[in-house]
Design brief:
Radius of gyration: 15 Å
Strand order of the largest sheet: 1-7-6-5-4-3-2
CATH class: Alpha Beta
Strand content: 35-45%
Structural class: alpha+beta
Largest sheet: 7 strands, antiparallel
Number of strands: 7
Shape: globular
CATH architecture: 2-Layer Sandwich
Number of domains: 1
Distance between the termini: 39 Å
């Protein structure tokens, strides 16, 4: 299990209003356009963004011989509009049943449920986003996927801001 200092953390400043960055995380149609590493598509993003609300995300990647599909489910723990969003995430099957990380090819000891914390602040017309994925090691493939996703978000923001 990763320690607190090993969690994925990304801090990024965007030249966009805080409302735009908040929408990237909370509106399914925008979330689908940037989430996931390069090459992944998000055909399903069901997001009930209220405390206690559920989320269900499908990530797909087309490969020469097959389509790789991964489902993620979770619950919104904290929703403080324009400032803080906290939700859990677990690997699941298409019906939303949580699966063990090992059954999905993750290394032994990977937690069944992780937590994503997004904190936003605005100053001078720019928005600072701090994202922490608790339970995912900073040197993992997950960290690389997050870095790619945030780059996709930045490109999308440049087109919508």
């Amino acid at each position: 299990m990763a320690t607190e200092t090993d969690w994925v953390r990304i801090e990024r400043e965007f030249e966009a209003p805080i409302e735009t960055i908040w929408k990237m995380w909370t509106e399914a149609d925008l979330f689908q356009q940037w989430y996931g590493p390069n090459g992944m598509k998000i055909p399903v993003a069901e997001m009930n963004v209220v405390e206690g609300g559920q989320r269900k995300i499908c990530m797909q990647m087309e490969m020469p011989d097959k389509t790789m599909t991964m489902w993620l489910v979770g619950e919104y723990k904290e929703v403080s509009p324009l400032s803080r969003l906290v939700y859990t995430e677990s690997m699941a099957d298409e019906q939303g049943n949580v699966l063990s990380p090992e059954s999905m090819g993750m290394p032994p000891g990977h937690p069944e449920r992780t937590e994503i914390i997004v904190e936003l602040s605005e100053a001078g017309g720019k928005t600072t986003m701090k994202m922490t994925h608790v339970g995912v090691p900073a040197d993992s493939r997950g960290a690389g996927g997050w870095a790619q996703a945030i780059e996709k978000m930045a490109a999308l923001i440049a087109n919508v801001a």
